[in-house]
Amino acid sequence: MEAKAIARHVRVTPRKARRMVNLIRGKKATEAITILKFAPQAASEPVLKVLQSAIANARFKADKAGEAFRENDLVIKETYVDEGVTLKRFRARAQGRAGRINKRTAHITVVVANKEGDR
After folding, report:
1. What angle do CA 38, 44, 45 make, to 5 degrees?
2. How large is the average pLDDT for residues 97-117?
3. pLDDT value, residue 43
4. Does this entry carry the keyword Ribonucleoprotein (predicted)?
5. How far is CA 42 from each of CA 13, 36, 37, 45, rounded to the nearest angstrom?
6. From 108's CA, which of 37, 45, 83, 116 has a CA 20 to 30 Å away?
């Protein structure tokens, strides 16, 4: 069984979110939660939320199918970060210049699945 969760327009740069995603790729879901909870980077919080949502989606799918659900069997199969829209802002500067500020957003996707040996 496979479950997926996506967070779109997250106000964190994709490069910073990819650092967190690379830490948890291929690990058990419970181990990844522990890693993200204690990571000092600010990008770990949105990635943790998406991971918890993917686990909840897996639990819902298992209940709907009438299967037994064990969170310890879930492994992070895929996880990636795509670039979202860039918010363009302007800040007035002296002598009539305008400073352009680009605020980047990210789309975070996490796919969890049962261990390969189970099914």
Report:
1. 95
2. 88
3. 95
4. yes
5. 11, 10, 11, 6
6. 116
Tokens of 7: 């967070």
Name the amino acid, one letter, at 102: N
All domains in the chain, ordered by first residue: 2-114 (3.90.470.10)
One-character DSSP codes across the chain: -EEEEEEEEESS-HHHHHHHHHHHTTSBHHHHHHHHHT--STTHHHHHHHHHHHHHHHHHHHHHHT----GGGEEEEEEEEEEEEEEEEEEE-GGG-EEEEEEEEEEEEEEEEE-TTT-
